[in-house]
Design a protein that fits this description.
The chain has 261 residues and is of the alpha/beta class. It has two domains: 45-111, Ubiquitin-like (UB roll) (Roll); 114-248, Rossmann fold, CATH 3.40.50.11690. The protein has six helices and twelve strands. Strands 6-5-4-7-8-9-10-11-12 form a nine-stranded mixed beta sheet, with helices on one face. Strands 1-3-2 form a three-stranded mixed beta sheet, covered by helices on one side. Strand 11 and strand 12 form a beta hairpin. The longest helix is centred in the N-terminal third of the chain and has 30 residues, at 9-38. The chain starts with 8 loop residues before the first helix and ends with a helix.
């Protein structure tokens, strides 16, 4: 039996080099093939299917506006850029984009659902059901019944949450909230549909709610002393520690001059 002779080191190195070169050649060929396929015109984006909520946007118009901004093929198109292009359209809150082999995209849209106006007079912004503030053509919105919310930038969700907490309480007394405001210093105030302004003070819902409940619980008893209804409120200040101050239309706590003598 002949002894096994080890291959010389230079032969081993040559074999290893050949193997590496072959592997590198195969990888380069594969990359070139993939590159050629991904850039083939057969995979150019040929169409976009738009589904979902398009009540304020015509799907054909959306496609026409977005298509010029799309570059690449089925494999190379930037889905994030396509999504941003759709979300830049008025009323579109969210766009979800998927590829459809071999050369199409499918986009599902979610529109903003307006629940309130935002800001002061002349402000063309709305609040959606998530508390997000967005811009829209107010002429496309049925503003009847929409309250107005306002507050510092970025505080939309907090203001909407407070409105949703307070609105059922005031409605139970037939006092509709027309405007809820959060000041820059964190103080809340409510403007009622009847014109009254109620100062609620600072704090989160857990701090404000007890003051409002105390006020509304005793309101009928207080106004009835003066032969009035809750709708006669002109203003109220709930920022007092153990009570509140109230002003009623047609009721004065100041004595006439004739009675002072």
């Amino acid at each position: 039996m002949k002894p096994v002779v080890a291959a010389p080191m230079d032969v081993k190195l040559m074999n290893l080099t050949v193997a590496v070169l072959v592997l590198l050649f195969v990888v380069l060929c594969a990359m070139a093939t993939v590159r050629t396929l991904t850039r083939a015109r057969a995979f150019d984006i040929q169409g976009i299917t738009v589904t979902g909520d398009t009540r304020h946007n015509n799907s054909a118009t959306l496609r026409a506006n977005v298509a010029p901004r799309i570059a690449g093929t089925f494999f190379t198109v930037d889905l994030g850029r396509v999504r941003s292009a759709f979300e830049a359209a008025p009323w579109v809150r969210q766009a979800v984009v998927h590829r459809e082999f071999p050369n199409r995209l499918r986009v599902s849209l979610q529109e903003h659902q307006p629940v309130a106006l935002w800001g002061g007079e002349g402000d063309a912004r709305l609040v959606n059901s998530f508390g997000e503030v967005f811009e829209a053509n107010l002429g496309e919105v049925d503003q009847d019944g929409l309250p107005t919310l306002s507050g510092p930038e970025g505080q939309g969700p907090e203001v909407l949450a407070m409105y949703r907490t307070l609105e059922p309480l005031f409605s139970a007394q037939d006092l509709g909230i027309e405007h809820l405001d959060l000041s820059g210093r964190g103080s809340w105030s409510v403007h009622l549909e009847a014109g009254a302004v109620i100062e609620l003070g600072r704090g989160n819902a857990d701090e404000v709610l007890p003051r409002v409940e105390r006020f509304l619980k005793t309101l009928n008893q207080v106004v009835s002393r003066y032969g009035r209804q809750p709708s006669a409120i002109e203003s109220a200040d709930l920022r007092h520690e153990n009570g509140y101050a109230i002003r009623l239309r047609g009721v004065s706590t100041t004595q006439p001059d004739a009675l002072k003598k």
